[in-house]
Amino acid sequence: MSHSKPQSPSTCSTPRTHRHLPHSCWTEPNSELTGLHRHRYLSHTSGLTGDQALQTSTGTGAMEVLHSASPSSSSSSLSLLLLLLTVDWTGLGAAPFSLNDTSPGEPFPWDQPRLPANIRPDHYFIHIHPDLISQNFEGEVRITLTASSDAHFIVLNSRGLAIKSASIHQPTGQEPTPTPPPTGSQGQPTSPAGVRDQVPGEQLLPPLHAVNEEQEAEGRVEPGQAPLHADCPDHPPPPPNAPRQAQLPLRAVKQIPLRMGSHNQASDAAVSQEESPAHAAVTQEKPPPHAVIQKQLTLRVVNQVHNFKPAVNADHSYEPPVSADPRPQALPPRGWTSVRVLESPSREQLALIPEMPLRAGLSYQISLTYSGSISSSFSGLYASSYRTPQGTSRTIVATHFEPSSARKVFPCFDEPGMKAIFSVVIVRDSEHISLSNMPKGSTVPNEDGLLEDHFLPTVKMSPYLLAFVVCDFSSTSAQTKRGVTVSVFAPSHQVNQTDHALQTAVKLLDFYEDYLQIPYPLPKIDLVAVPDFEAGAMENWGLVTFRESSLLSEVETGDPWSRVYISLVIAHELAHQWFGNLVTMEWWDGLWLNEGFASYLEHTAVDLTEPSWGVGDQLLLASAFRALERDAFLTSHPVSQPVSNTTQIAQMFDVISYAKGSSLLRMLHIYLTDQVFTDGIRLYLRQHSYGVTHQADLWGALSEVSRGRGRDDDVEALMEPWVGQQGYPVVSVTRKGNRALLRQDQFTSRPQNDSDSLWPIPFTFYTSTSSSPRTHLMKSREEVIDLPSEVLWIKANVNSSRFYRVCYTGALQGALSAQLRRDLTVFSAADRAGLLDDTFHLASQGALQYSEAFQLSLFLQQEEELPPISIFLHHMTGMMRKFSFSKQPCVIRLLKAHTWSMLGRLMKAQRWEDDGSLSNQSRRAKLLSLATELRHPPAEQHALRLFHFWMAKEGQHPLPRTLRTLVYREGIRRGGGAEWSFLLQRYRESSSAAQRTAMLAALCHTSNRSSATWLLQAALLNTQIKTQDLALIVSQLARRYRTNHLTWAFLQRNWDTLLTKFSLGSPFLSGVVTAITSQFYSQKKYNEGV
Q: What is the CATH number of the domain that holds 756?
């Protein structure tokens, strides 16, 4: 999944929120945008409650807060989130679940957050009708499943659904035989893997009494009896490969009327026997927060299972079944048996408890009918809207299931390792279309005058990858070299903004097929611009959903950096079609296997398909710098981190999984060589296609290829410390005659560090006498390498491509500074940027003096390249912001003076035009923005002049594309109410998502507090400004001293409302809290935090 917008090559410490930019923190030049990213960068949580020590290390300077959290009030919920964002996970797991803490009602038979492993789904048949008018949906799901061992109950996930009925049938020739569960030595029920089959003291379900045909005909079905025929056809369904017959009704039994509303209301679930003689009455009381809800339903026993399995050819291409009907077939007649349905809302689990146990090795089919409400948030099945140029509001519905929201739309085994085939039927009206992962097989009218779209069965995949959209969009399409249909969908008035995305997607899909040597397995892939979208994008297999600004751009007038960003997001999501979709991590602790690969390959793919841009290496460098900064916090976590509950899972979508995962793969790629790494990941994909993996499977494939190439790399021994340990090392280099003494320690943002962690470090270096890099694999705390006596300096971590920092002690630091001033071209731009980043971070930690960092930076007077300039500005602006909040104007003046003395020559040389390479345009925008930040009068006046001329021409006069964000911002910052109102009006009228984002960021630079408050409220209420952009507004306002307090007050005042739109621990809430509190430097703010 993708998260937010990339900046022009720089390294910024910005708050993130799904799936984008995992790639980098670059935004369009000078935009200062910190928008919402999928991809989502945030801190992690332990899931603990109660009094906790809260340590917050944020931004360029953060304070420690000791905080007591209790979830009993709005403010304490906010305090809890602050705790969740910062508490150390190491050694912590989910709070234990007690069967005794469920009041009143029967204890739930399963006490783990993860589902039992002995029951696995094979095929889902899903029939769903989202009603765009009532904002409700009703559906039926039929799941074919297999038991690997005997089981007395079935546990699956469900959240917020009103379950109406349940039924089951089992294989041909298997008569159910009641068998008591095994008992232990004390006579208590036992089961494999600690499964509780029966509550102590509870009797087994009584046997179901038969009902004769006379009773059934008269409707005299007593409680505990099952009708013989119950509305089923009198013939079994056809075999899976039989020719397609006339359309059969979806529901095999008389349907209980589906009622809308909360599943916690008894009226929603209560069904009389008159309404459904085949089902017992369902009654339900509103439960306390942690209660187990019990429903008395019925479970159907039948004798045949249909399990259509789409064929996948040897070359991994998909071949749709000739006669596979995605609708569930009618069930053959059999007796009914009683079943209890228990619900545990706190665990989001549903238990079906039949009288007869499920037998090992047999397949069964369960069917549930249910209803629910279309969400107003950004997960599950939710509503989204847009306005046409004529001002008409149009509503669509879309899904977003990752990581754990499929359960909000249909009861399912909602875990990534529970892969299955999905057959989907969507009911809609004729004014809309529906899209899903696969092409439509047919569209048929139903008896209600609506249309049913029947989609072909998917390949085997995880439930979080299922998706559908019901909309009125138009599209453009093209085909890849191999004939895969690529389509981009958007509102009709925005279809002219899809050309770049379409061309890019076709080009990248061809690239990945060639690079990975595995064909994309589906016949089509759709890219859909969803008007309301929390993340940057989501890689649903065959139906990729995007935020509009991540997909749409004007070809002629759009900012070129916007197109770079769009290309990166598309590259990220298409990489997921292999890494994440074809091969999936078994559980969320392996999320980095998905996101790390997608983040790494997005840069590789864009760099190789758009070589003229020349941005791939710069973006990877920026991504690595951001990961190094975040991973130094004491509140970081290992790349592979045990997680259990949904809050912990959501917190894994952060800079560690994305950017650090990507950086580690880059380091491994370089160490193993290109041939070994590329062949190794191809082998990994081939070995585990349509399956699930652990990181050991990746290490094994790479080691196998390495051995085949005559190397002897133990990849697991090399990489496990990097993914299994928090943080990373700093290598201290000390010159001792003809030797260099190396010592590794964990680098943290605070100088006190007693960690005993060790890493196998690919220590690369070159010297003043030899530019040829050498590699030394450092495995111990201290090691020694030999140097020629004439060496003046040593430069380690060649091209800053390995995940560690380097501290040069004694004369080495001074020798490097002198060489940079003498001839900076001896070092690559990446090495110069790395030296600056390491030195300033080491100074902030106390390992070096700040005077050494400023001395090193003097070479910037001769610098022309973007990476060193960007990293220098990142550190300077961060320090200026810190001292502005702590009210130290003298320090700020000194920082500004040093910045001007280093880059003033370049700033004054910039022209207010669009020309030159993409990198030069980005550098120009960054330097001119800096000039206005430093209050350079000529720059300020020129920017304001351009804004007023644009304003006089009613926004029709084009501004320089790469400088528009800067001009908007200066017009608001130096203007007044007229300028603000004009830009707001242009924001409302613009159909360009990229321009709307730039304008909105500029509007946040107002000095009028009423205007700033209006922006926050409008976004909260989703009026004129979309709620998806609230994170952008908060982050922009929080960075400025005059408006930071407004954001803090807003967050406290609207906490309950925000919790209805975003879940606790979500990327959004994490991002906004981090954006605000990262600017807390005063004792007063400290007191507010606690």
A: 2.60.40.1910
Three-state secondary-structure class, residue 396: strand
**Annotated binding residue at 306?**
no
For residue 211, the number of C-alpha atoms closer than 13 Å in the C-beta half-sphere is 25
Q: Is the same domain home to 340 and 474?
A: no
Please tell me whether residues 718 and 847 are part of one structural domain.
Answer: no
Bond from prior residue into 638 cis (ω within 30 degrees of 0): no
Q: Which of 343, 573, 852, 970 is catalytic?
A: 573
Q: Residue 310 carries which DSSP code?
A: -
Domain edge (last residue) among 817, 842, 865: 865
Residues 1035/14, Cβ–Cβ less than 8 Å: yes
229 is in an annotated binding site: no
Examine the domain organization and report whether 718 and 786 are in the same domain.
no
Q: What whole-number distance in Å separates Cα of residue 705 and Cα of residue 711?
A: 9
Q: Whole domain around residue 770: which residue ranges?
A: 729-802+804-865
The answer to whether the beta carbons of residues 1070 and 54 sit under 8 Å apart is no
Cα separation of 727 and 110, whole Å?
36
pTM of the predicted model over 0.85? no
| DSSP H helical ranges for 737-828 | 811-822
Nearest to 470 by CA among 126, 124, 129: 129
Which of 724, 759, 775 is where one domain is finished? 724
DSSP string, 821-883: HH-GGGS-HHHHHHHHHHHHHHHHHTSS-HHHHHHHGGGGGG---HHHHHHHHHHHHHHHHHH
pLDDT at 184: 34
The model's pLDDT over 931-954, given as tens digits with 9 standing for 90+, comes to 999 999 999 999 999 999 999 998
CATH number of the structural domain spanning residue 444 = 2.60.40.1730
Q: What angle do CA 1083, 1088, 1090 make, to 5 degrees?
A: 95
Is 572 among the annotated ligand-binding positions? yes
Mean pLDDT of 706-733: 96
Measured distance CA(836)–CA(113) in Å, rounded = 46
Residue whose C-alpha is closest to residue 706's, from 688, 680, 684: 680
Residues 638, 548, single domain; the answer is: yes
Number of domains present in the structure of the chain: 3
pLDDT score of 303 more than 70: no
Claim to verify: residue 507 and residue 587 sit in the same structural domain: yes
| 852 and 710 co-located in one domain | no
Examine the residue annotation and report whether 573 is marked as an active-site residue of this protein: yes
pLDDT at 635: 87
User: Is residue 83 exposed (0-12), middle (13-18) or buried (19+ Cβ within 10 Å)?
Assistant: buried
- Please say if the pLDDT value at position 839 is more than 90: yes
Q: How many Å apart are CA 878 and CA 345, to the nearest integer?
A: 44
How far apart (Å, rounded) are the C-alpha atoms in residues 411 and 414? 8
State the pLDDT at residue 617.
Answer: 86
